[in-house]
Write a structure and sequence with these properties.
The protein is α+β, with helices and mostly antiparallel strands. Helices cover 19% and strands 19% of the residues. The structure holds ligand MTE. Its main location: periplasm.
Length: 340
C-alpha cells in the first residue's frame, strides 16, 4: 500500500504551527478573499461569519443561507467545558484534505464548491433506499441546533453550534434490516471540484473518496448527528457542505464531510485514515486521554480561540470527549487500548 509513514497532517500538525504563522496565514486568506480590513475582523469583529467575509460580492455562493428553521436542543450542553469557538475560527481553521492539507486551505480553496445539484444516496441493507436532493436535506427532517465539542486527533478542539438532525432519523426512514451491523459513509469524489483528489501531495496521500464508518449501535446513538449548518446558517463549503457527520465522542476525522452515500452493511467498512496508517488511526477512534497517538500525547488539547492568539494554554482531554455517560456502554468489555 502506498502511504506516507508520516501522514501529511503530521507535517502540518496544528500544535507545531506557531501562533504567528496561524495569524499570518489567516491574514493571507482574508486578503485573498478580498476582505480588506483583516485586522478589524480578527479583533473587534471576532464573530464575523462567512456572510461577512463575502460581503455584498456578486459571486457570493447562493447556498449560504441563514434562514434554516430549527429548534434548540440543550440536552448535551452540560458536557461543554468552554465558551463557543468564534465563528470566524470555525470557518477558517479546517481539515478538509480534498481542498489541501494546511488549516487555511479549505477556506481558501473551497469557495467555488458547488453543492447544487446534490444527491445523497442511502442504500445497502435497508428496506427503502433513499436518494435525497439538496432541498430534501434541509426540509425532510426537523432541524435542531446542538452545541458539541469537536476534538481533533491533532490535539486541538472547538465548541461548535451545529444545526442538523440525528443520523438515526435518516436510518429509520430508510428502514435498517436486521442483519445490518455497520454504516459506511462516503464523501463526494469530484477531482474537478476538489483539487486535493487530483494530487497526492495536495490531498495528503489519502485514497479518495474519503470514507468513514460506524457500528450500527454507534450510528443509532442519539449523539450521532448529521449536520447541515452551523452558527444558524447552512454549512460553509470548508466545513463539509451540504451535509456532514458529527460524532462528538470520537476524534474529528470520523466526522466525514460532504457526504454523497450512506451504505448500511453487515461488515466493518474501511476508513480513510485507518487505511493510510492503521497503527496510528483506529476504526473506533474514541477520544481517549489514556491512549496516546504513537507520536504525541492525547492527554491535553488546545482549545482554538481561547486564551488569546499567542497563548499555548492547554486543557485536559476527557474520556469520550466528556460524553461517557451517553456512549461508554457501547464499549463494555472492550479493551480500548487495542480497539483504539
Ligand atoms: N472529511 C473529509 N471528506 N475530508 C477530510 O479531510 N477531515 C476530518 C473531518 N472530516 C476530513 C473530513 C478531520 S481530520 C477533522 S478534525 C474534521 O473533519 C474537521 O472538521 P472542521 O474543519 O469542520 O473543524
Amino acid at each position: 500500500m502506498h502511504f506516507h509513514k508520516r501522514p501529511s497532517w503530521d507535517k502540518f500538525k496544528d500544535c507545531d504551527v506557531t501562533p504567528e504563522q496561524v495569524f499570518n496565514d489567516r491574514r493571507r486568506i482574508l486578503k485573498q478573499m478580498g476582505f480588506v480590513g483583516a485586522g478589524a475582523l480578527l479583533s473587534s469583529n471576532a464573530n464575523a461569519g462567512i456572510f461577512d467575509l463575502f460581503g455584498d460580492k456578486k459571486d457570493k455562493p447562493q447556498f449560504l443561507r441563514s434562514d434554516l428553521p430549527h429548534s434548540k436542543n440543550t440536552q448535551y450542553d452540560s458536557v461543554l467545558n468552554g465558551v463557543l469557538t468564534p465563528e470566524s475560527k470555525v470557518i477558517t481553521h479546517n481539515n478538509f484534505y480534498e481542498f489541501g492539507t494546511a488549516k487555511s486551505d479549505p477556506a481558501e480553496n473551497a469557495q467555488g464548491f458547488n453543492v447544487e445539484p446534490w444527491k445523497l444516496v442511502v442504500d445497502g441493507l435497508v428496506d427503502n433506499p433513499l436518494t435525497l436532493d439538496y432541498d430534501d436535506l434541509m426540509k425532510l427532517f426537523a432541524l435542531e441546533e446542538r452545541t458539541h465539542l469537536l476534538r481533533c486527533v491533532e490535539a486541538w478542539s472547538m465548541v461548535i453550534p451545529w444545526i442538523g438532525f440525528p443520523l438515526a432519523a435518516l436510518l429509520n426512514k430508510a428502514g435498517v434490516k436486521n442483519k445490518a451491523t455497520h454504516v459506511a459513509f462516503e464523501t463526494l469524489f469530484e477531482p474537478e471540484q476538489m483539487p486535493g483528489q487530483k494530487s497526492r501531495l495536495m490531498g495528503g496521500g489519502i485514497h479518495y473518496p474519503y470514507v468513514e464508518g460506524l457500528t450500527m449501535a454507534e450510528a443509532m446513538n442519539d449523539l450521532s448527528f448529521l449536520s447541515v449548518g452551523l452558527y444558524g446558517k447552512t454549512l460553509p463549503p470548508q466545513n463539509g457542505a451540504p451535509i456532514r457527520l458529527v460524532v462528538p465522542w470520537k476524534y474529528g476525522f470520523k466526522s466525514i464531510k460532504s457526504i454523497v452515500r450512506i451504505r448500511v452493511t453487515d461488515r466493518q467498512p474501511p476508513t480513510s485514515w485507518n487505511q493510510l496508517a492503521s497503527n496510528e488511526y483506529g476504526f473506533y477512534a474514541n477520544v481517549n486521554p489514556q491512549v496516546d497517538h504513537p507520536r504525541w500525547s492525547q492527554a491535553t488539547e488546545r482549545r482554538i480561540g481561547e486564551g488569546g492568539l499567542f497563548s499555548a494554554k492547554r486543557i485536559k482531554t476527557q474520556a469520550f470527549n466528556g460524553y461517557g455517560e451517553q456512549v461508554a456502554d457501547l464499549y463494555k468489555g472492550m479493551d480500548l487500548k487495542s480497539d483504539f
